[in-house]
Amino acid sequence: MGNANVSNVTIRPEEAAFFSDLARDWWNPKGKMASLHQVNPVRLEFIRKAVDAHWGGDDRDIKPLAGKSALDIGCGAGLICEPLARLGADVTGVDASAENVAVAATHAEKSGLDIRYMAGEVASLDIGTFDLVTCLEVIEHVADKRAFLKDVAARLAPGGLLVMSTPNRTAASRLLLVGAAEAVGYVPKGTHHWEDFITPEEFEELLGEVGLEVTERRGIAYSIGKGLHLSDNEALNYILSARHAA
Predict the structure, then answer these.
(1) In sequence order, which residues have a C-beta less than 8 Å from that of residue 116 and are 6 or more positions away?
(2) What's the structural domain count of the chain?
(3) How far apart are CA 122 and CA 118, in angstroms?
(4) pTM, two decimal places
């Protein structure tokens, strides 16, 4: 698919510009992207369990992705790419924002990690397929979700594992993730547009249409005692794993 056709498919230009403005603050755990730093360990817990389940790995292995390729779509400044590299993967990060990619590459170099970063739309980049594809908190920023998922599925190698996360479209998410979170500064104003959120049922149906089947799905919830954690409660946010349908 050429660049002329991707504008209706992927990240809206205003969304890319919004996150580009935040790029330099992305790695500050107390900055404007603090919410991502807080949710990252929860995402990584799910990814690690999904990797072990998918490939029959040992949860004590410190490099479960050794010898495997990984792609993070909508990588931002590399908050997922760097842990994937430390788990042994050969990592590529793609983001619509050139500013994000520049910050990500600089941070990886300073951290001594060899990660390939590319700016652009995943559909227009000739990058092949990957054993693991992650795409976290991205699909809610996409105009044509079906076309986007077709492009995501095309990057997943035979026998590969996909992990995606997104906010749910519920009354609770409208109140807490959009209204309250922006009001108190937990996320920058304009981060979320509730009408673009997708329910788990809608998500699974769209994945099925592009030839993928969900293997695991968990909510990401918050409580005073546990903080952010994996849960059966999907009212605010959820994360799922999928593979090519048999």
Answers:
(1) 91, 92, 93
(2) 1
(3) 9
(4) 0.86
